[in-house]
Design brief:
single chain; 247 residues; alpha+beta; two-stranded parallel sheet; two-stranded antiparallel ribbon; 11 helices; 48% helix; Transposase
Amino acid sequence: MTSIEGCGLDDMVKGLVKRYSEADVLPPILLYTDCDCCGKSALMDIFRTAWPDLVVRLDVWHFIRRLAVGVTTDTHRLYATFMGQLSAAIFCWDKSDLNLLKEAKRQQLIQANITDPSDSDVSVRLDRKELSLHCRRMTRSTEVIRERIQAVLELFGGDSGRDTMGVPLFHERIWELWKQQQKHVECIQDPKGVQLYTQTGTLKKGGVVLPVYRCARGSTSLESFHLHLQRFIPGKIYLCSFFCVLI
């Protein structure tokens, strides 16, 4: 949810609350937003008044993007590495899921006539797509996240953050941005007692049965819906009434 865009969001929020009430169904227990995750917000107050048990969290991708504003350019050769390090500072993989995937990958290597593959042989062949498909992630503690992000910023803020032409990865304002965003580390924490992953099936790899997961964390599905609407609606200019008819 983007709570500061558009003039009709107040009515939308009230209407959403009303729909849940009229349908006589349990309200949501978790809401991800790209802003107004803490502090005072008129829109969030409507939710909190109607649904006092609602947990509001900041979408992690938007949190990372706030820090990425301090990068000189996203075409810097270290940009992708930096973004990956930020994600690794925030999340850790479920050990049981990761070990099961490694065993499946090891068996695949053995079937490919690679005898006695080492841990490094296995790890280097794990791609991001497989990890996301078969392994759950969880946020680290607030203290660990702060320490790890600080370490990442210090690493790329020094000589290691310069490309071959000597161009630095960061603007000087990166430290002010980090100072501002530290209070939101608690806002990106996975809420306790909320199941964020759903097993949708299984896949067999190397003779090992692996679970297939779908994650409900963040606002990625909403961003995908925005893209779908953009592609679904022909033309460039539509009145609101015509747009509603199309929907």
